[in-house]
Amino acid sequence: MTQERDLYHVLDRWMDDGPTVVADRVIAAAMTDVHTTRQRGALLAPLENLIMRMQPIAPFIGVAAAVVVALAIFTALGPRVGDSEPAPSPSPTAPEPAATITAADEFSVPLSLELPSDWGAREAAAFFSAYRSAPQPEQLFERIVFADPNSMRVADATGAEPWPDDLHAWLESRSEFEPSEPRAITVGGRPATMYEAVATYEPTAARPTFAIVQIGSQTPGEGILLALTEGSVTWRLIEVDLGTGREVVIAYLGPSETFDAWAAEVEQILRTVRFE
């Protein structure tokens, strides 16, 4: 046991200091070999010497390399000083739900519908009006009107007449309108007929607009006027059969170049309509 420890002690010293005593015959043999052995390249010899010198510390180099790799992995994956937990993504704000509006206080045709939160409503005995902006007596666009045809009149240069029994024929008789063929649809589960026409009007100084449809009272601010105005305007009029001889007319119009988008928005609202 003692001899083995002594052997380890000698080897440790040899690794630290290197051998200092060499026999004379070893030196003589080495000198002879130098003169008789072909010399190696100038670059290869220093490289081999470097490798020989590094052999004793090779295990330490391997350990150091492993430590460097471990530190790199820890740095990439582990937490860093000053970092905080990632903030959760904010939840998208849910749109405000549509409000259910019931027309039962004044309008002669009880109905309910859902309106977006930024819409408003106004009603009278002759009509119920839903609008996206503040209502004005002369407002033409961004408005849906539900009207009792018994309170509606159509006007011309000579006066006014009751709402026509044949709406398509009346539209064809007016030079300002270019109507399409009527279409059968349903609104609120009730059968209906939709009439669409493109109106063009040339204003004059005396008549910049022409109130061709009058709904309810003719007192300014109390009724509703659907007027012809400059430019191309698309009109959509829907007659809904409520049964027992009762009808309601739905009217909305807008500039022809943007009417499709406006009509799609109105149709979403009309899908929520329920008649009492």
Structure write-up:
The chain folds into 2 domains: 2-77, no CATH class; 99-275, Protein Transport Mog1p, Chain A (3-Layer(aba) Sandwich), CATH 3.40.1000. It has 276 residues and is of the alpha+beta class. The termini are far apart. The chain has helices at residues 2-17, 24-36, 44-54, 58-77, 167-173, 259-270; strands spanning 99-103, 111-115, 120-123, 127-131, 143-147, 152-156, 159-162, 177-179, 183-187, 190-201, 210-215, 224-228, 231-243, 246-255, 274-275.
Short description:
This protein has 276 residues and is α+β, with helices and mostly antiparallel strands. The protein contains six helices and 15 strands. The chain folds into two domains: 2-77, no CATH class; 99-275, Protein Transport Mog1p, Chain A.
Structural class: alpha+beta
Strand content is: 25-35%
The DSSP helix count reads 6
Whole-number count of domains: 2
H/E series: HHHHEEEEEEEHEEEEEEEHE
Under the CATH scheme, which class of the largest domain?
Alpha Beta
Question: Which regions have little confidence, pLDDT < 50, spanning 5+ residues?
Answer: 40-45, 66-71
